[in-house]
Amino acid sequence: MGEFNARTGLLSKLLSVDNFIYDQIGLNPSGVLDIDLNQSIACQISLVRSSQDRSVNRLGTTIIELCNSNELIILNGRIFSNRNIGKFTCTDLSVVAYVISSKHCIKYFTDFKINVFCHISSDVYCSIDFYISAFQKEDDPQTLLKDKIKSWQNDKRDNCLSNIDKASIHRISYLLTVSNSYDETKSNVNEAVSILSECLVSSAKKTFGTYVSGAPKRATKRCS
Length: 224
Prior knowledge:
Layout: E1 2-3, H1 19-25, H2 58-70, E2 72-74, E3 97-98, E4 100-102, E5 109-114, E6 128-135, H3 141-144, E7 147-149, H4 157-162, H5 166-177, H6 182-208, E8 210-212, E9 218-223
Antiparallel strand pairs: 1-3, 2-4, 5-6, 6-9, 7-8
Helix pairs in contact: 5-6
């Protein structure tokens, strides 16, 4: 997000209409010509960007080229209350401030609006608000619900040592003492580290126990 002093008018295209976009909006590529791409769609993305500012300058052309080469999308005039409008962002009746997103992050936007000009927030620019909703941790529920090891307890350190698998220790010792080449040594060290990690985790689980953490709540961040 920022003020780029770039006027892009209705220059296109900001992103080629690839299978990703079709998947996002639920369109069948084979039948795309039979569908009005400007209609309201479930994900609230318009494939055609609108703008009240029809002028184009050199910086605007540069912004469009940047978006094309990096698969970025200008959200002005495309989503939520600004869709099919593309409101002016400056009192001189121009659009020079933009919110730009990668195609993979569009799904996290929950609102976007260009506010009425207020001299308290700026001398010439309209403020832009957008909301992003995302998990605070990894999105994969299976990862979120994995068993977590309880905190270390000093009075159980002897138990922790005794719970370490002796066969694993012998295997580690063997791997670190037997090698005939650099590649074999590297492979043995990697295997030894892996075994040691599994060994310590297993011992900690047996000694201190585990618990299942719940999935974190979604957090909505307001940006302006």
